[in-house]
Amino acid sequence: MGPWPGWTADARANPTMSARSQGRANRGVRRDAAPQDAVRRAMLAGAPAGFVLRPPWSLAADAFDRACTRCAKCIDACPTHVLKLAAGIVQVDYAEAECTFCGACVDICPEPAFDVAARASGGKPWHAVARIDASCLARLGVECDSCGDACEAGAIRFRVHAGPVPDPRVDSTRCTGCGACVRVCPATAIEVRAPTA
Ligand code: SF4
Ligand code: SF4
Ligand code: SF4
Fold first, then answer.
1. Sheet strands (E) in the chain
2. Is the shortest distance between the CB of 150 and ligand 3 below 6 Å?
3. Fewer CB within 10 A of the end CB, N or C, for the chain?
């Protein structure tokens, strides 16, 4: 079985949380619901310039942000603590955890912020995939395969080439966007984002 009901790729994805994730400490997230006008001001003042990954099965960014009241129920319900409220947006932060696609965030949300039908029918939670940038140690000639070890979906393959060490490539057809590779990368070279973002 894959990380969500409709996942069919031939991969070694494990829907259960890894031992690593289970031991992860709770992260400091804001649990109180901020008033809507204050939230909107914060969004305008502090919206991040880079790509923001909203929760799995969330609606398109604008629709999600409109429907979400920042009640933090999803943040509290997430067993891996991979969700946080930052710059007024509920978003995924892979710095210390990964998404197991358990669906708890979707199930608990009282607002029309998620594509509940897609989750129920086993639809993909998003199109986000991992990307490895030029700061990757292996691409700079230093031996490293931490991301490959962390990827339970088998989406990271190391390519032997003319350089001193094999370098990693992400197979976007296998990558679930779970983020397990992100925090193990010693070079912070991996980001999970939409393919076109
Ligand atoms: S699907 Fe589960 S692990 Fe992923 S963000 Fe939602 S609650 Fe957290
Ligand atoms: S996000 Fe990283 S660990 Fe998860 S499936 Fe994709 S490449 Fe593998
Ligand atoms: S863990 Fe990071 S530095 Fe190491 S091979 Fe993977 S992307 Fe490169």
1. 83-86, 89-92, 129-132, 156-159, 167-170, 190-193
2. no
3. N
